[in-house]
Amino acid sequence: LPDGLRWLKRYNLKLDPVMVKGIIGKINVHLMATFRQRCVITTILLLSYVLIGSLVAYCLISDDPYQYYIVHNRVKEYVENGKSKELESYLSLPIRGFVKPIINTRTTRNVSQTTIFVITPTYQRVTQKLELTSLCHTFSLVDNIIWILVEDSKHKTNLVLDLLLECAVRSVHLNVETPPEMKHKWWHWSTGLHHRGINQRNAGILWLRENYSLKNSNGVVYFADDDNRYGLKLFDAMRKTERVSIWPVGFILGLTYEGPICRNNSIIFWRQWKSSFSPYREFPIDMAGFAVHLSQFFKHPNALFDSSVGLGQLETEFILQFISHRKEAECRGSEKEVFVWHIKTTPPDLQRESKALPKYKLQT
User: Is 315 in the active site?
Assistant: First the structure.
C-alpha cells in the first residue's frame, strides 16, 4: 500500500476517497479470510496431534481392557489346573507396552551323568586349525564331554596343543603316525585299501580301555571327524545309548542324507546309495552315524577298526562286533530332521601366497 501511494504521488494522480476505501476494504476482507483459514488449519492440526498423542499414551501407559480380559482368563486357567511353572513363565512376559524381542537361550540344559567320549582323528593341512576351532566351539556347548584328539604325526604339534589349551573342553591329546604303506592314495579309492583315520581311532579306543573299566563305564563313545558339522540335539540323543545307537547323516555320496529313518526309537526304513562295491550293507551309514556305549568295549575287548575290510564296510564290520543284526540297533534319530552333516571344507586358493610381502608367516 505505501508503494502504491508513492507511485500515485510521483505521477500527480488524484485519489478518489471512495475508491481508496473500497480497495482497503477488499484487502481487509482478503486478509481476514486468509487468517480464518490459517486458524482452522492450525486448530485441526493441533487436535490431530492431541488425538495421536492420547492414543500412543493409552497404548504405553493404560491397560487395554480387552488384553486384561485375555490375561485374566489365562491366569485363571493356570491357577485352576495347578500349572505353576506355566503361570510363572506367563506372568514374566510383558502384558502391556511394546513387546520385548524374544531371545532364545538354552538355559534348561539337560545335565547328564553320562559322559560322551568324542574320538577325533586329525592330520596336518591348511584348514586343520579352522576345522578344529569349529569343533571346539560346538563341544564347548555340550555338557559332560571329553574330547580325545589324535594326531596323525610322529610328534604332537604346537598348533593342536595351543588350540586345546585355549579350548573350554576337557580333552586328551594323543598322536600316532600312520605307516607309509597304509596311507591313503588316490588309486586306493576303487580298491577300498587303506582307510583313513583307522590307527588314530584305535588309539583312542585303547586309551579308553587303559583309563576306564567296566565298573566306571557310564559313557558313550562317538567318532567325530574334524570336517563334519554337529547339532546339539545329536549329543542329547546319543546319551540314551545302551549298546549301539544309529541315526542318519546329511550330505552323503550325493544324497541329502543316508541312514535309518527313526520313529519312537525304531527303524522305519533305510535310505542308502545302491553302490556297486557295497549294495547291501548291513549298516549303510557314515562314521558320524552311530555311537557305542563305553561298556561294550570292555565286554568285547578285541573290538577295533579293521583296515583290511573293503570300501564301504568299515562302519558295518565295526558295529557287527557289538550287535549281530540291524534290528538290535537303537534308532536315536528323528524322522523330521538331521543332526549331523558330512561337510568337507574347500581348501582356500593360495596361489598368491608366494608373492606376498613381507615374508612373515602367521599360524592359520
Answer: yes
